[in-house]
Amino acid sequence: MVNPVARRIGAAVTAVVATVALTPTAASAAYGTIGERETVCAGDLFVRTEPNGAWMGTLYRGQTFLVEGPRSGGYIYGFAYGQINRRGWVQDGWFC
């Protein structure tokens, strides 16, 4: 028969391991590289007129963004392909 304390410890260790294994890592999303056409990893990524400015469209997972730079306050400037097809700012760090 298994000791009840050992059973609880085993369950806790299993829960911690599962949580760590399912937690997204930096490898699942990356910052854009200037000059590269990057693929969006986020479910959706707002394209704005300026950093934290007015919304002008949304890129969805798998769509692409040509990173032109510069960076400003966590945002990066470039060209949003797809139905947007214009230049704007997106939050940096959501590319594959």
Q: What features would you describe in this structure?
A:
With 96 residues, the chain is of the alpha+beta class. It has a domain of 66 residues: SH3 type barrels, CATH 2.30.30. The protein has a 4-stranded antiparallel beta sheet, with no helix packed on it. The protein has a two-stranded antiparallel ribbon with strand order 2-3. It is elongated. The termini are far apart. About 16% of the residues have low confidence. Keywords: Signal. This is SH3 domain-containing protein.
Topology at a glance:
Layout: H1 4-22, E1 37-39, E2 44-48, E3 55-60, E4 64-72, E5 75-80, E6 86-91
Antiparallel strand pairs: 1-4, 2-3, 4-5, 5-6
Q: Quick one: CATH class of the domain at 26-91?
A: Mainly Beta
Neighbour order of strands in the largest sheet: 1-4-5-6
Computed over alpha carbons, the radius of gyration is: 20 Å
Strand content: 35-45%
